[in-house]
Amino acid sequence: MRLYAMSCGYIRGRKNIYVPDADKQVFIEAPMPVFLITHPQGNVLFDTGPNPEVFSNPEGVWGGLAKAFTPIGDRDSGVVAQLGKIGFTPADIKYVVNSHLHFDHAGGNRFFPQAVFLAAAKEIECARNPELEGKGYIRSDWDVGLNYQAVEDERDLFGDGRLVIIPMPGHTLGHQVLLVRLAETGSVILTGDCVPCRENFYQRIVSRNNLDNEAAGRTIERLHDLAAREKAMLIHGHDPDQWAELKKAPDFYA
Q1: What class, spelled out in words, does domain 2-245 have in CATH?
Q2: In the chain, where are the structural domains located?
Q3: CA–CA distance, 24 with 124 (Å, rounded to integer)
């Protein structure tokens, strides 16, 4: 089993969105990561990044969200192009696990019509809520006739303990992480946006952009317990400093 890390461009915004006590004048260019896991029973993609059309038409794709976040990249930054660089196509993907259905994590869902999408039941409910449209959710990103299976609670994807979807709500009500147990590297937790930067985890700082801050705080504690139990490496959703240190495709973790 291999874990490949790729970034579908970058997203520029104020760091205090993620770390509230950061100087409001400090901006970061954060990765919009996707991860490919090759498993003997099928290839799995964790998140799909943004709709690549956003790089040429930010306001047309992201609407008002483009006022707070600037996309950095081009059409070659999209998830299909990133997969192509390591010899994979959308048809090679059996499952897509969405950490959540926000614009920078699910904008590439449209390119995988043959895959089974695994999103939390509560996440699908939130994404369908018209009051949340444009507040992280863009319906045209995810609601395009795809095959969604609503995940309830924890799910061992292949029944062998090597890929486990675990609910970690707070950022959104249906946010989930993926525990990847690799033979050589050991356990890796793909954290999505529940601890977007290292500070959120190590200093137990709750970010600003959550639907439920109390749940987000409890998730950080649960994540500490899980990481300690698994002796796991955490990969944060939007930490540019950590991203610079990680192995990126075509290199991989095994």
Answers
A1: alpha beta
A2: 2-245
A3: 32
